[in-house]
Amino acid sequence: MSSEAADLAHRLARDAEAVCRYYLSNGRRQGRYWLVGDVANTPGRSLFVRLRGPDSGKGAAGKWTDAATAEHGDLLDLIAMNRGLDRMRDVCDEARLFLSLPRPKPKGRQLSPAPTGSPESARRLFAMAQPISGTIAETYLRRRGIMAVHGFSALRFHPRCYYRPDHDAPTETWPALIAAVTDVAGTITGAHRTWLDPSSRGKAPVDTPRRAMGHLLGNGVRFGIAHDVMAAGEGIETMLSLRSALPTMPLVAALSANHLAALLFPVTLRRLYVAQDRDPAGDAVTATLTERARAAGVEPIALSPTLGDFNEDLMRRGIDDLRAALRVQLVPEDVARFMIATEEADMRA
Predict the structure, then answer these.
(1) Which listed CATH number (3.40.1360.10, 3.40.390.10, 3.20.20.70, 3.40.1030.10) goes with 221-348?
(2) pLDDT digits over 61-112, tens only?
(3) I want to staple 46 with a disulfide (CB 3.0 to 4.6 A). Which of 68, 197, 277, 321 is the partner?
């Protein structure tokens, strides 16, 4: 271990409980240990982190062991595995971010940083974020009526995501919901950020609380893998609202009307549901996407909300009314496939 990494590991160990509360928020303290399911923050008790002890040697603070897998290490190892980082430089950057330490001065030739707004920059941002479970991102979605928020690999949370009001303004940091933008093959091409207010659980009080970066045209935020049937719409909250009623239907949020109009289809797609917003832009993009789908041999079907959009329907009318409104708009075989099967499973549960 380099001297820099050793110093960071030592600093982390001195505040081991804060590290655990941040990266392993689903765990809990028991005596001198923090107990959790695994390094991915799964609830449970098989991984334990020593919170107090000597600075080094046997029983040192910050050392951890997973009794289920026999994995072990220090808090730098834990951060690397928790965040999916495989380069020590990225792990040290994440540790310095947690400890609020500046970057060290470069020594010799350094690799260039990823260009701002590039797909590589988006991939790095997404890799640095954490699962949304137990975060204010989860609370934000629940306040939008979206209760089923777990199991979405496309969504993560960043507690201190950079925000710059304009090019000449100083950089701010706000917590943010991070969504991965992917192509039809599942490769991350961009990221979408929704900055959040840490006190109100709504969006942050900034001029543009939503921004996307990377290559967006033709791509989108995907929930589920599409084969023959999928639904596509503009906003993340809109599509997650549909997901509440149709949890097994693959969905794509294209993030804007223009990007929705240019969405690329999987080669296996046979039917496309277009979740339209009730506004002129929504009408225009539905017409464009319908024309493109027909030209590609895909059956297009518009899904219309009762109010302004499907998230407004969910919040103001409730999940039962949303399901009833969708039921009459779906093809009968898709009602059986994506709705009745889910309802029967809920009744058995």
Answers:
(1) 3.40.1360.10
(2) 999 998 888 888 899 999 988 888 878 888 888 888 888 787 666 555 454 5
(3) 68
